[in-house]
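Mods, move this if it's the wrong board.
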Amino acid sequence: MVSNQKLFTVGTFDFRLQHLLVIGVLVLAVSIGMLIRSGPSSYGFELFEFDPFFNFRATEYILDNGTDAYFNWIDEKTWHPFGRNVSETSQVTLHLTAAFLYPIFNFGSSLYNFTILFPLVIGSLTAIVVFAFVRVLGGTTAGLFAALIFSVSVPIFSRGLIGWFKSEPLGLFFAFIAMYLFVSGIKFNKGKISLIKLIIAGLFLSLGLSAWGGILFFVIPIVLFYFSLPFFKNKDNFIMWAAPSFSTSVILFSLVFERTTTFIIGYAGLALLLPTIFIIIAGIVMKFSSERAKIRNCAIVLISFVTSGIGIASSGIIGLPSFRYLNAVNPFLTTQDTLTDSVAEHMTTSLSLSFTFLSVFLIFSVIGIWFLFSKKTINLKTDMRIFAICSSIVAIYISSAFIRLELFASVGIIILGSIGLTILTQKIFEQNKQNFTKIIFPAVIIILFIIPMTMPENNNWLTWADFTPSILNGGSSFTNFSSNDWKDATLWLKQNTPEDAIIASWWDYGYWITTLSERTTLADNATLIDWQIKKIGYALITTPENSWHILKSHYTEDVSQYIGQENIKLWGMIKDPTLEMTFDKSCKQIFKKEAQELGVPERSCHPILQGMDADYVVIYIAGERFYSENSNVPFYTLEGGGDESKKTWFTAISNHPVSKMIENDNITPTPYYMENSTLGLLTPFSIYKYVEPSTGRAFDVYQNGLIPVYVNDLKFKDPESDPFYLVYASPSFYSQQQGAMSAVLIYKINHDYNPQN
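Not the wrong board. Structure tokens:
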């Protein structure tokens, strides 16, 4: 065949035309990935979303202070006054990898610009690793199809866009390397080479897990694969040392990092150890069993191990994972925690959204799963077939839990779809007389790839990369709007507030404020202390008097009377209705930094009861400005994705009655909210009229189907008589241009305010 034509020789390796084709397809896949992922750069060269700003700051800390200082870093700029143990609660591998690569590949760029490009490059290059992984499962053609599908997969590239300096791109890169080495080591059984591959696979899986906790997913198909191995790969002792080698490697390397240690000495370690021990015992049992009794005896051992695992998990000996991990395993699990529900990434996946993401690849996947279950139509090795089935089905199942995990559905689709396309292609081109089909088939496949990328015009796959970096649109619903409001506001904080100023804001904006303004915040996107976030939500929704006491009071002062025992018990998860939490003045608090220096345990004295010690409050309002005919007075519609759109969640999280604050459309604020809640009064707008969209008629009182129209109305502005007063509003607030508004408002907490009670 022409594809086998030798082009040149390097040593003992003959470089053939087919190798050139493979390189060409991989270059194409990487190039497509880079082009798609670079979409947000057309709006501005910035980090994307929220977490990347902390990851940039942590990487900068390593470069400035070294790794030893990093592993002992208690960040006192966050979660005031408690601080944060960074290496214990962060994606350590991401920070270390970026800090290691920056001096080598910075090419004169700043660290900020390097971290913007990092996910673009790593995410795009992962297509090559995916090729290697799927090639072992289904052959070279399947690997090439997998690389191409990976490069255009919406759930994957949308979580690896330029500027997305978060956990997923590097985590997936390491995880796919681990999977390639694992399946390669198991498949080929080459003694020492397989042993080395399996040990290195364990290293990369632990690195991936340290980079992103979601990599725990890959443990599940490995566990299922382990349980199936003795039934079909039992002719020698290979699996009896191969599986323990990999599992031991994962466990030992995971113990290097604090965060992965908590996984591996808990449920993840148990999940790996039980099937590993099963493989060893099953191997021994089968060795001493007759040929007829081997499978039966192995099945008995399997049942006993599964029963033991369920018993250990139910006993409480091993701690259960957090809700989001449990929800991934059991998509039908529901939470009563409104804080968890309020996170957009935790929204349940819908069928329409799944189809939008996966589209025509579902067809290829159905073909793939059909071929994999067929005994006569394919020549894949049984172990690789089973691993492909386990990985794909588990991936698709887990993705049904919430939107963020749609990424794993893509992993399953990549495996099934690439194998399905490969076998279908082989069968078509094996036909001797179907020349027309051979010509039309590649054209059909190319068209099927192109259609979802270009159609429909406003909701095709490419539009999922056409986003403004969040720092430029405030994370609002105006995805193509760009302004410097947040950058200007954080710069103002940096230049006009004391270095030790404490900033109160909703947790969404914590990383931006800490990184860009270098000021201390009460909460951020790490969401480490649930009750602290709920306390901020309560301060935003309760009356200004209560908010003033809670926010301005020092963290050694008792503010329980302004919070209420019901909320204190709820946030502290106290179930005894007769028990009251009281303030203990004699208790000496020891926060993380001091505890580390003294070598003693951290100690808090009922911090839920105490003040938050804040100096400023930052709120963010997004909406649209417009003008009526023959009028120069601007009108506004809000609900653009800022704090005004989160008031329903603030209300529910802070245990206020939602119906008191929000109308029955679950969007429009009630008059009580506008006139009595802190956020309502901090919002420098008031409702002018309620308008019927279809007719334009205006009403003074809310009715179903009406939308509120606002006018400017700054309520808190007096530094002498108001509990809060405006000290800064970003340019978008003062602009008179029609269109999107993205206003960052900074209020100073008036410590000289004289409350009425």
